[in-house]
Amino acid sequence: MTRGIETEAEGVVVDRTMTKERVLVGRPPLLRQTNAQILLRLLRETGPCSKADLVRASGLSAPSVTNVVAHLALAGLVEPIGEGDSTGGRPPDILRFRAERGCVGAVEIGPDFLRFLLADLDGREIGKAMIPLERPSSAPPEVCHQIREAVRDLLRHQHHTEEQLLGLVVGVPAIVNVREGVVRALSALKGWNNVPLGEMLAKDFKCPVTIENDTNLAAQGEYYRGAAKGEKDFVFITIGEGVGAGIFVNGSLYHGSQWTAGEIGYLRVPSVSREHPAIHKYGKIEKLLGAPGILKSWQSDRRRSPTHPKVKCAADVFDLAAAGNAEAKRLLRQRANLLADIVLDLALVLNPSVILLGGEVGNHPRLLQEVEELLKGSEYPIVRVGLSALGSSAVLWGAIHTALDPALLRLLQPSDSLA
Amino acid sequence: MSHSSVVIGKSRPAASSERAEQKRVMMQTKAGDGALRVPAGYGHVVGVDIGASNLRVALADMNGTMLGKWSASTKETSSPAMVIEQIHTGVESLLEQACLPWGSLLAVAAGAPGITDADAGVVVATSYLRGWKDVPLQSLLRAALGVPAAVENDVRMAAIGENWRGAARGVADFVFLAIGTGIAAGVFANGRLIHGADFAAGEIGYMHVPGTPEEAAQDGAPGSLESVIGGEGLRQQWLRCCTETGVAVSRGLSATEILERARAGDELAAGILHRSAKILAYAVYNISLVLNCKLFVLGGGVGMSEPLRDCTRHFLEQFNEPVRPKLTISSLGQDAQLIGAIRLAMNKAEARIGVKVGG
Questions:
Q1: Mutate to test the interface with B, among A350, A354, A376 (most CBs of B within 10 A)
Q2: Which of A338, A372, B111, B327 has the fewest CB atoms within 10 Å distance of its CB?
Q3: ipTM beyond 0.85?
């Protein structure tokens, strides 16, 4: 079937044939690949087992399993580890998944740091690192250099070769064209407009490099191993220096038509129009809700009444609110109002099963509590709201899981298509 | 898997002779890309739009060409059994008119005005039709008409229609905004409908944007957004204005008439139009931010109003934001739902006979 995709003048992507679904024809290589994925998942989930166990658990025929296991062994993904207990006949060979066959890497570019995580093919951590970023002078080539050196160091420390690195995913606090690996604009750093980061990094690594928005990766992390496990429709809101949302629809991440889905920092909500009419002139509620906005409000309150306690970060203000400080409580309430408006909009448009709050500010239990109270008062039976389970490591884990499946798939592809 | 393998509920000789026939007609219409196609006359589908006050049934061939329409009032007959019976009557009369046997019917799809579980084929809840609750519409239709059936929420059905043959033809990401008595959105993302966790995605009647009423709506009363933009809300505002200003004439205007009056220069009506359009602009802007969606198709009695579209466009421009979604009026109008239902029924028919069809 031909798929005609064209772009109209206004940038609306038109897919003339999109109402028809592609018909997948089950040719032998594809079938074997699908079966290989099934067996791999079984081996990963249940641990070492025999071929007979795989036949029972997968529902595939014994010859198919033998065939696929041979294919997996050839790809270096399974190996026999000796004989199991006999139930009468010849003792069965026990097979295991060789998670150490390779590894995948995750990089998080933060406002003032670079974080790294290395995991085996089973998604288990094998090493991590963090280095400071000198902001705002960190130009793209320098950051690329830092990433290259740090990943190489990490591989060496864990006794892995560069060939064993099967995929690298980089999270960036910016709008990212994922297909092309281009960072649109990164406000925290200088000189980061339309940077072809994917291309730049691909020169330094032998494996595929994927660039993705950090909030989207955090949502992936929560989906694979955090608070959104098994949720096909959910939203992850991060509130830290900035505000953003990662949106899962029908079981996968939704990017929107120009990669900016979830840019909720610019929403227009009633609580802001009411209390801060000027804010909309800048088009950013992010300035209020983000950590810098909260700190700024607190400092300006302190100037008026110097008895206010000093705080180091935005979370401190919410801690003070929890301890009963009236001024901090008022500030918390105001931010919770704003967040409740955002949550309501997202819930009505997307009907997610849960909305998770993360980031330095978003992950504060007192904020969640306030938002839940406000939502209870709303007229509409509203969504469940919860906290991120992975905290500050959500982005890295999301990157690891984004890298894993394609890495395994590539190992399973017939060798002629690897060229 | 062979293409022509699925013929259900037939005796083996009948099925195999039918299969041979199917193969014959399809081989004749093998298209340039090698895909087998069914000729338009091979079979037919029925699309149904169950509205709050009207039931509409349409018969179409496998090109999606409508061969006839039939309608009836649902005011007196709102129970599921009665509506099914009406649909049966409608299909019967349409087939008769087209001189087609029942056997040529391949599938049916129906849109319902409420929360609809499209996977299970159940109308979960609706405030119309005297409050249907957990009605297994899909199996009722299958039993009554003897063909595979599909059901979907009416607004999403209209979105399918607009995506297939309307103002969003082939657009992978767009929002269909239905503004009639109330307001709801049908959202396409990556070429697929968004349903949400409880099939309630796009139920934006309760959305809060700057300018919507702050106090919580009473149980069963329209939501804050609905109360300003919905047809009933517009009429209420008009009545209030009439009372406040002592204008007694034309109290009984419809929502579209009020909006037309605004265009003709009536100041009272213009005030209402401005307020509604500004709030609609906020809603459109917020939804477009969340979804990164550039195209909004306006449908429904109020949504189709040109003055409302123009005024809303004006406000969207005034926001002066980098994000400026495009507003366009539905090109299928009242038929959007029916056309969406025909497309969904054709999908069902394709699945049944195991081939892609034209259109």
A1: A350
A2: A372
A3: yes
